[in-house]
Structure formats: C-alpha cells, structure tokens
Design goal:
90 residues; mainly alpha
Length: 90
C-alpha cells in the first residue's frame, strides 16, 4: 500500500504506536482519495459506491468480483497448471 500514499505518511515508523494512526490514514486515503483503474471512470471505492447508488440497476457497469478463493492470481495459476497437465497428457 505504500505506493498509493505519500511517503511522508509511512516514513520513520519505528513502533506499533506510531503505525496505528498512520495505517488508518493510509486506508482512508486508499478508499477515499486514490483513483482505481479497475473502477468505472477511475473512481475511488467510496466515489464508485456513491455513483452506483445514483443510477438504475440496468445502467450499472458490469464488473468481475473476485473472492479470496478465486482471485486473479489464483485463476491464472490454476489455468497455468491445467495447461501444463494437458501438455503432459497429450
């Protein structure tokens, strides 16, 4: 997450007492200020949610939702494993 916030927020943290308020700030910035490439119109998550509340259901953009079990990396790895298996079976 460090790359999405100013370095001044995360530099010179030496203990957990200093970390806690800065971590809260980083999470807030990530959800409220930082634009996300995968969200419609490059919105922040909070702005995207507000946008969704203002439009009709049939106008909502189509999105792929990943869970912990089925995230982009896992599905890529699974496809890679399957293709390797096919190569050996063929």
């Amino acid at each position: 997450m460090k790359s999405c916030v100013p370095d001044t927020l995360v530099k010179h943290i030496t203990n957990f007492v200093e970390l806690k308020p800065k971590l809260k700030r980083v999470v807030w910035l990530y959800n409220n200020e930082r634009p996300h490439l995968n969200l419609y119109n490059y919105y922040s998550p909070v702005n995207f949610e507000q946008y969704l509340l203002t439009i009709d259901t049939d106008q909502k953009p189509e999105m792929t939702v990943y869970s912990e079990k089925n995230n982009k990396n896992n599905s890529y790895q699974q496809k890679k494993k399957r293709s390797k298996k096919r190569k050996f079976i063929s």
